[in-house]
Amino acid sequence: MNIAVIGSGYVGLVTGVCLAHLGHRVICVDNNREKIKKLKQGKVPFYEPDLEDLLKKYLKTRYLAFSASIQEATKKSTVIFIAVGTPSKKNGEADLTYVENVSRQIALAMDSYKLIVEKSTVPAETGQRIKRTITMNLPGRFKRGSEVTLDFDVASNPEFLREGSAVDDFMHPDRVVIGVESKKAENLLREIYEPLKPHIVVTDIHSAELIKHASNSFLAAKISFINAIAQICDHVGADVLKVADGMGLDKRIGRRFLDAGIGYGGSCFPKDVDAFIRLSEKSGYHFNLLKEVRQVNEEQKNLFVRLIEDKLWIVKDKTLGVLGLAFKPNTDDMRNAPAVDIIHALQHEGARIKAYDPQAVPYARKILKKVTYCPNPYLLAKGCDCLLVLTEWEEFKKLDFKKIKRLMRHPILFDGRNVYHDRSLEELGFEYYGIGRGNIRK
Ligand code: UDX
Ligand code: UDX
Question: Is the pTM of this model over 0.70?
């Protein structure tokens, strides 16, 4: 199948490269020419495991190409995925300017049947709006009065890719959701995903759009739920890890996404929860449950800062070492990373911040100023009054804490991700505080 993917960011690039791997001929497009130049050289502009290897492999073949021209990509393709950014407006609503702009350009370049598929997370009804935009902007030769003479379809095929494991998620999906209006569109999408032999859920376009919103909001709610439980655990002296394990064994609940911590971040959950609240409001429903999900998430960061302030007594002029900056492990992405708010709050109190992250430092330098970035965890620990774990990178599990203890001024560790749950640090003489591990009773 000849496929175009418009927008070569995290989602678009993973989609394009993986579709090439499935044997399709893919053109990935981006309006950032610098990005296209790098991609043509086989360089992925962000960190995502396995992606660069696949990119390099398929660049050498006829299956993968890059272009800055939507016109060229539209003409050469039957199916066009839209994966451009949908940032938040001030009121939380998704800004669909890029989606509209791209739809217009696709319409202007159309000369035969096309299936236009929304991949970006968009509010319900966007499918209809894309359809209208395309109809309005088709070249005059395809219009007879108000009638359109060129056949085309619009579909929704939301992504469920997690950063850090996006390639694996693409290759092994729990389900592929396709929202369509015609059998032709359904068959084309089925053909595209056929090699993965996935469980395909076929719906109308509105329902597919809502499946994406509802899934992300539900996962965010699950995280906020366990974070609320963690707060209670801290007060009653219970251990949230044991509570989560006990709950998770119930198959109706499941253990995944029940890890308490400093809250969810990233480019999706915060933005999608906001957008869903706005979308519901517009449709006349006040989604207060989701507002509380957002509130609990914000509170997690504040509570963590307050815990540090409480245990250190005076934060001003103390040196705090931060292990992990990215919003989750295996990515260099700092979008809405809890580390940003936490570090800003501590700096506001006069703390000196040192930080180490295996991948995110170049990104972090742009948004976190007055931070001393260290090349490894041991240089980070040197002279610190305490350490904070903000991202659960695998390498943090294997650190030599005997050495770290010797290097620190005071062996205190605030574990925002409950990485060290086996009490081994306490045995080494650390003062240890996790999330929901009975902190208040200590
Ligand atoms: C984006 C959306 O933000 C998200 O809601 C959706 O689910 C998937 O797509 P992501 O891939 O993480 O997420 O965004 P980003 O990495 O910013 O990539 C968007 C790309 O689109 C950028 O490379 C940008 O240069 C490109 N773009 C943007 C265009 O090619 N044309 C435009 O008009 C606008
Ligand atoms: C998410 C969705 O999982 C994916 O399906 C969607 O399409 C895009 O958004 P992503 O944001 O890449 O993916 O990462 P995810 O693994 O979902 O984690 C999001 C945030 O939640 C991270 O900050 C993570 O640390 C946090 N999290 C996750 C928790 O705090 N506890 C958990 O139990 C799980």
Answer: yes
